[in-house]
From TrEMBL:
InterPro entries: AKR, K_chnl_volt-dep_bsu_KCNAB-rel, NAD(P)_OxRdtase_dom_sf, NADP_OxRdtase_dom. It comes from Serinibacter salmoneus. This is Aryl-alcohol dehydrogenase-like predicted oxidoreductase. Gene3D superfamilies: NADP-dependent oxidoreductase domain. GO terms for molecular function: oxidoreductase activity. GO terms for cellular component: cytosol. Keywords: NADP, Oxidoreductase. The keyword Oxidoreductase applies.
Length: 337
């Protein structure tokens, strides 16, 4: 079963393995299979589910809402996000303006089949909207009871600090950031993590397996497996490209004996690695089949001693991306349309 951690400086506990449906529901996986996988997550003790209105252009939220129908709402933590364009993609169908936030949250609530969202996240930083406007809209939703906590995704250390101050002034809690983080992609460690730890903000990390590369299934000098994420433009193929070179793939193969020595599969080792960071509240995992979850949830509660962490660093020496400048390149300088 899955362990639980507090989300930021709040009293909310979340499952440290959190189910995310970015590249599966509404696109890659048929609805019946998606629902079975969500039920497998519940059976494994996962209570926290993360989605976004933009995933499959709102279809992912609809599928998740259907999959969770009939469950005790008080026993679940449902997360979603706002920023990217949905619908007909008109001039106000994107960003973090008061109008787009208001319209988006009502759509999300309807699709998810709930009257409140546990964590509502700014999917990116919006350079075209005053932060005061964004957090004023978030505060209204919290005070109306439609949202319990506020989070963000891929914000820089400076943006987190400014957002945290505004949230405090408005009487709401900014409790989380959702960045990419894995043993191969560590750009948050230099600035974002220390700032977040100071402010009481947790990380909910996506792609802990580096888009599947840390599973070890991609081999140097070999074509990518048929049907894998690297071949599917709908399921993050663009994100995995940065890792698909022989230097990285050779280094990843060096992790296999480390995983074996600890009685772990490669995916379990990758997820356990991110969970060793005390600022990480949860690792987001997806699945296209229920049996995939049976493997990954076993990473919960695994303790990797200092010797193992050092061995992982040595195995990946030279291929890890850890420049904090990478955190400044994620949010677009103009709204996505």
């Amino acid at each position: 079963m899955v362990n639980y951690r507090y989300l930021g400086n709040s009293g909310l506990k979340v499952s440290e393995i959190t189910y995310g449906n970015w590249v599966t529901h509404g696109s890659q996986v048929e609805n019946d299979a998606a629902i079975k996988t969500v039920h497998a997550a519940l059976d494994a003790g996962i209570t926290t589910f993360d989605t976004a209105d933009v995933y499959a252009n709102t279809a992912a939220e609809t599928v998740l809402g259907e999959a969770l129908k009939g469950q005790r709402r008080e026993s679940l933590e449902i997360f979603t996000k706002v920023y990217f364009p949905t619908g007909p993609k008109g001039p106000n169908d994107t960003g973090l303006s008061r109008k787009h936030i208001r319209d988006s949250v009502h759509g999300s609530l309807q699709r998810l089949g709930t009257d409140y969202i546990d964590l509502y996240q700014a999917h990116r930083f919006d350079y075209e909207t005053p932060l005061e406007e964004t957090f004023g809209a978030f505060a209204d939703l919290v005070h109306q009871g439609k949202v319990l906590y506020i989070g963000v995704s891929e914000w820089t250390a400076e943006q987190l600090r400014e957002g945290h101050a505004l949230a405090k002034d408005l009487g709401i809690q900014l409790v989380s950031n959702q960045p990419q983080y894995s043993a191969l992609w560590r750009v948050i460690e230099g600035k974002v993590v220390p700032t977040s730890a100071e402010l009481g903000i947790s990380q909910i990390v996506w792609s802990p397996m580096a888009q599947g590369v840390l599973s070890g299934k991609y081999l140097p000098g070999q074509p990518v497996p048929e049907g894998s994420r690297a071949t599917d433009e709908k399921s993050g193929a663009n994100f995995i490209k940065r890792f698909l070179n022989d230097e990285v793939l050779t280094a990843v193969q060096n992790l296999k004996p480390i995983a074996a020595d600890h009685g772990l599969s490669m995916p379990q080792l990758a997820i356990a690695w991110v969970l060793q960071n005390p600022n990480v509240a949860a690792a987001l995992v997806g699945a296209s089949r229920p049996e995939q979850l049976a493997d990954t949830v076993k990473a919960s509660g695994v303790v990797l001693e200092a010797e193992a962490m050092t061995a992982i660093d040595q195995a990946l020496a030279g291929v890890v991306v850890d420049d904090p400048a990478g955190t400044y390149e994620v949010s677009p300088k103009t709204r996505v349309v």
